[in-house]
Amino acid sequence: MSFAARSRPAHLATDGPAATGMPAPGQGAAGPPGQTSPSPSTSPPPAAEPSLAPGTPDEVVSGPPDRPEVALTFHGQGDPALATAVLTAAEQRGARLTVLVVGSWLDQQPQMAQRILDGGHELGNHTQNHLDISTMSAEQAYAEIAECADRLQRLTGSIGRWFRPSAAQYANAMVREQARQVGYRHCLSFDMDPRDYTDPGAEVVQRRVLKAVGGSIVALHMGHRGTADALPAILDGLAGRGLTAVTASTLCS
Predict the structure, then answer these.
(1) Cα gap 104→127, rounded to integer Å
(2) For the chain, first and last CA: distance in Å?
(3) Residues 6+ away with beta carbon under 8 Å from 128
(4) How many CA atoms lie within 13 A of 34 on its CB side?
(5) What is the CA radius of gyration of the chain?
(6) What's the pLDDT score for residue 49?
(7) Would you call 133 exposed, middle or buried from its count of C-beta atoms within 10 A (0-12, 13-18, 19+)?
(8) How far apart are CA 70 and CA 14, in angstroms?
């Protein structure tokens, strides 16, 4: 894969607001050649998440440890029925999630973008194809971030606040710079990885996540049955310890 010239993402094609989770109206992007573009959203633009606290770093690994809150962040990909089960379980318990979506998943399941927002959750960018972004050239990394951003913009009216690198816990300097070029001021990492993607079973996932403390940012995955099955008990267990599951933006506000 090569990119001879860098194209400006559609959401930055004209002057408008910077990417802070606020919408830039009237903009969108076509998909790759031969692929049908997602239909523009006809719903109102998503409500703005709270402003981040002064001094929030370029890459957030955890939130303030003195707050009785945790952020459950999800890799957005996989069976939409499992994704919906995760969202519903959270909503039934008053929890709010942050979902970092893969753009190619939105190409297949465009309805999930609005479903996530309608539940009061937060959407972010997890690249277009979920490849190892740390091994890419700057041009390739930029394209991966920008393509997903344009799909989010077209479907929801916003590119979202957060970018999470694919196949890496942390964004290296090159990836952080490309994310800034696309419009993401902050990358979202995590300090707790229960490795639910290895499918260890619901009880194991539950036990690992319940080691979270105030300010933890937990990395989870929507497309795994064990995660969906574990979530109700995870949320009940956190509540029993006085911890509330909130969006990453709320945790860092």
Answers:
(1) 9
(2) 39
(3) 102, 103, 104, 143, 144, 145, 147, 148, 151
(4) 0
(5) 17
(6) 84
(7) buried
(8) 37
Within the chain, residue ranges assigned H as helices are 80-92, 103-108, 111-118, 138-156, 173-182, 202-209, 225-240, 248-251
Q: What is the arithmetic mean of pLDDT over 9-29?
A: 43
Q: How confident is the model at residue 180 (pLDDT cuts 50, 70, 90)?
A: very high
Q: Which conformational region is residue 20 in: left (phi greater than 0), alpha (psi within -120 to 50 degrees), or beta?
A: alpha
pTM: 0.84
- Give the residue-averaged pLDDT of 20-35: 36
**Whether 50 contacts 249, CB under 8 Å:** yes
Task: Give the HSE-up count for residue 188: Cα atoms under 13 Å, Cβ half-sphere.
Answer: 32
Residue 246's closest CA among 92, 83, 70? 70
